[in-house]
Amino acid sequence: MTAPMAQPPRKILLVGEGDFTFALALKLALPEIDLTATGFDALDDVRRTYKDAPATLAKLAKAGAAILHGVDATRLGAFCGFDEVVFSHPHLGVEDCPAHHRLLAHYFRAARTVAPVVRVTLAASQASLWRCDAAAARCGLRLARREPFLDDRFPGYTRRRSLRGATFRHRTPRASATRAYASPGVVVSPAAWAGLPRAAADARCPRCGRRCRDARAYATHWKDAHGGPPEEACVLVDDDDEEEEEDVGDEAVAPVEDDPAGPGGSCAVCGLAFESAEAAAAHARSLAPARPAGVACACGRAFGGARALAQHAASGKCAAARRRVRVLYCHGLEAGPGGHKARKCGEWADVVAPDMAASLWHPLRENSFARRFLAAVWRRDAAPRRRAAADALGGCARAVAAAAAAAPACDALLASSWGAVVALRLLADGAWAGPAVLLCPAVYVLLHADDADALVARVAALPAHKRRQLTLMHGDADATVPLADSRRLAALTGIALVELPGGTHGLGRHATDGTIFAALLANLRNARAARPGAKRDGRPLADAFLLDGLPPGVRC
């Protein structure tokens, strides 16, 4: 029988390190240990995945530890002479129990040639789900000791995901255990860190008795509740929750039945059967951690799936993920979708400007008043002029709604003159419910008085929060639609009216200087900050949208 070790192991090889915070915490707590820390990822990948890795690696090197990158925990032939090998929280990045059983089997086979004691730290029920003891038994190793792995013994250590560096916030400090394996007859001492003190699980305020989760939280509490220099907190450690160290001894392990050898043979280490020689050659690659499945943001960050990429884009923290504002534009009766205001808007926003095929006199335009009037006369309608305006409005509203439905969702609506009448119809019908700016609406000029009053009444009946995200803008020099019409509309609906000194019906100058767009963006910002039933979003629009190209002086 091999003689028992008199002292805890002093020469330790760590494999599978991610951000190296465990290695740093261990070396700082036990500086006398001869520590070699290795990770699977290349140095550039470590720096890209874990933003604080450069500082961690610098501190670890300064503490005297050896650091190696690109080391496969299943291929350790270049190492020898260690007292023990430690693999903390191995994971392939996929939830596949058989794959992790195979990973452990290959790790045990490689590690047993490097050191007499092989340790692995697993979370929760992973040891049973991955059949860890059976994987060790394949290599002639037995479970010799099982000890709780307590995160709060390692200040600065954080468990992180290998794919993107995020933390396991749902894990508790008592959810893991370190399992030590050795050949029969080898006496295994407790882990080197077994005697390290635990940090306080809680701190209690001596003045009011409030429990704080850590010293930082206690300092914040004292500043907010009491002020002045904080008194020393009462340290609380939940020793009742700590598991006892356990010397397992020789426990029988149920043998693992290998699959029948396939056409390509089987693995002598883990017993996996291969369907072909190509599958056998690819077996070693299957033991490597998964990489993001090609889902990447334009900023260069990689993600494990489309959902994570969408969350990143919605966060507003990535300039490459931000997009331009999408504006739905309803043109005037004769202006068309390529008019001056649409072009100026297109300098800073993505504009959806459907051609409503509208006109006053052009009989070949589908929604022209002349064409609709002739059709009403042909049908011998009692009021052909009223019917023509109503039919033209309905046709234009359907054209805009169809174009908006076919395009990506728009953020705001801008409408001018007849287009503003169409926008009122969309609002009344519920086809548009977002922020909007209506320029010089010709509702009382082009519609029959009764139809105009009915449409305005429907808009006035909209919920107040919807009307608050609308703005009327009208120039006091408009010779086509009287300013009094917009004043009347504002009084009946409660929609805010902005009167523009010197503004003509086209409001071209106010599109050029950005006055119109400033109002549109203000409505968009307010709509995002006051959505009923949704989380209030008061961030500046520049955090969510790319706003390059706005006229000088426009604030957002």
Write the layout of secondary structure elements.
Blueprint: E1 11-15, H1 21-29, E2 34-39, H2 43-49, H3 53-62, E3 66-69, E4 84-88, H4 97-111, E5 117-123, H5 126-129, H6 132-138, E6 142-149, E7 176-182, E8 202-204, E9 211-212, H7 215-225, E10 234-236, E11 246-247, H8 277-281, E12 295-296, E13 302-303, H9 306-314, E14 323-330, H10 340-345, E15 349-352, E16 358-359, E17 367-368, H11 369-378, H12 384-406, E18 412-416, H13 418-429, E19 436-439, H14 443-446, H15 449-460, H16 464-467, E20 470-475, H17 483-493, E21 496-500, H18 508-512, H19 515-529, E22 545-546
Helix pairs in contact: 1-3, 4-6, 11-12, 12-13, 13-15
Describe this structure in words.
- The chain is of the alpha/beta class.
- It folds into 3 domains: 11-198, 3-Layer(aba) Sandwich (Rossmann fold), CATH 3.40.50; 202-236, no CATH class; 322-546, Alpha/Beta hydrolase fold, catalytic domain (Rossmann fold), CATH 3.40.50.1820.
- Helices cover 32% and strands 17% of the residues.
- It has 19 helices and 22 strands.
- The strands form 5 sheets. It has an 8-stranded mixed beta sheet with strand order 3-2-1-4-5-7-6-11. Strands 14, 15, 18, 19, 20, 21 and 22 form a 7-stranded parallel beta sheet that branches.
- Strand 12 (295-296) and strand 13 form a beta hairpin.
- Helix 12 packs across helix 13 (418-429).
- The chain is elongated, with a radius of gyration of 36 Å.
- The relative contact order is 0.07.
